[in-house]
Design brief:
It is built from twelve helices and ten strands. By secondary structure, the chain is α/β, with parallel strands linked by helices. The strands form two sheets. A five-stranded parallel beta sheet has the order 3-2-4-1-5, with helices on both faces. A five-stranded mixed beta sheet has the order 6-7-10-8-9. Helix 3 links the parallel strand 2 and strand 3.
Length: about 300
């Protein structure tokens, strides 16, 4: 980087007025923080934290004594107004989450929206993100992806959400809690089919783990464990992307499989397609989409 560029960057951040900095912090390894982030955490007037106790470990490690206060989903409305008052008086605030990039499945949207509305500068300070780390290390396509965050906890809502995501051809990235991961994988298999996937657990930490395979293969591996722990990010192949071969004993062509099913059972096309989808581990919608694509390719 040239001296001119360094000087220009310094000038941009030599702010005397209010500013909200969105500072990404380590998701595990405390060394994964930028020099810029450390400098700003020392210079701002206040650090707004999702959990002040979690952030305290990072600040103590780097001997940062800046005052901090909580800003989480349960106090977001009141905290947003309190922080806005500091900004209105010309103060500078750093917003951090427990780990990773603020606002990514974490609170902060209301504060950022309010700052934008009032003309307070909002300055992202890039850094760690579990979603990006898992995506880039998964071995699945990275040119287009959808970050879907946490799936709903209730099965019905979770399946409806997965049904919405099923037609997307881009790679899907999810966060999931360890106590819900088996149920989530079961519903993914049901709604998305046996797609390729990668589960990343405890990223950048001592017990970092990567599990590659199809959705049912990953679920089978986890079922054998007495207990599942840690932060989990799941990356799933998009619709129609390098589809997994059908289970042994079934035709490669879904059109041929459908025809065989209709001849063998006498079922109408719709019922036969439903049976074919079940046998191939697909949702009916996914099976129909593959059928249309296969026929279009022949035309």
């Amino acid at each position: 980087m040239s001296k001119d560029l360094v000087h220009e960057d310094d000038a941009v951040e030599a702010r005397s007025g209010p500013a909200l900095y969105l500072i990404a912090t380590p998701i595990g390894n405390l060394e994964d923080i930028t020099l810029r982030a450390l400098r700003l955490l020392k210079e701002v007037d206040r650090i707004a934290c999702e959990d002040t106790r979690r952030t305290a470990r990072l600040l103590q490690h780097y001997a940062i004594t800046t005052p901090r206060e909580s800003h989480h989903s349960h106090n977001e409305a009141a905290s947003t107004q309190r922080l806005l008052e500091i900004l209105r008086r010309g103060g500078q605030i750093a917003l951090v989450t427990d780990a990773g990039t603020p606002l990514v499945s974490d609170p902060g949207y209301a504060l950022v929206a309010a700052c934008r509305q009032e003309g307070v500068p909002v300055i992202p300070v890039p850094g760690p993100s579990a979603a990006i780390a898992a995506l880039t290390g998964s071995g699945l396509p990275t040119d287009s992806f959808c970050f879907a965050g946490f799936l709903p906890a209730r099965q019905g809502q979770r399946r409806r959400r997965l049904e919405e995501l099923a037609p997307l051809r881009c790679t899907l990235v999810f966060y999931e809690a360890p106590h819900r991961i088996l149920a989530a994988l079961a519903d993914m298999h049901r709604m998305l089919g046996p797609r390729r996937a990668c589960l990343a657990r405890e990223l950048t930490k001592l017990h970092e783990e990567w599990i590659h395979g199809t959705i049912p293969e990953i679920r089978s591996a986890l079922e054998k464990r007495e207990r599942i722990r840690g932060e989990i990010t799941l990356v799933v192949d998009g619709a129609g992307s390098r589809a997994v071969a059908p289970p042994e004993g079934y035709p490669e062509s879904i059109s041929l499989h459908l025809l065989e099913e209709m001849r063998a059972t006498g079922r109408e096309r719709g019922e036969a397609l439903k049976a074919v989808a079940a046998k191939r581990g697909l949702s009916r919608k996914e099976a129909y989409r593959l059928l249309v694509e296969e026929r279009s390719a022949k035309d």
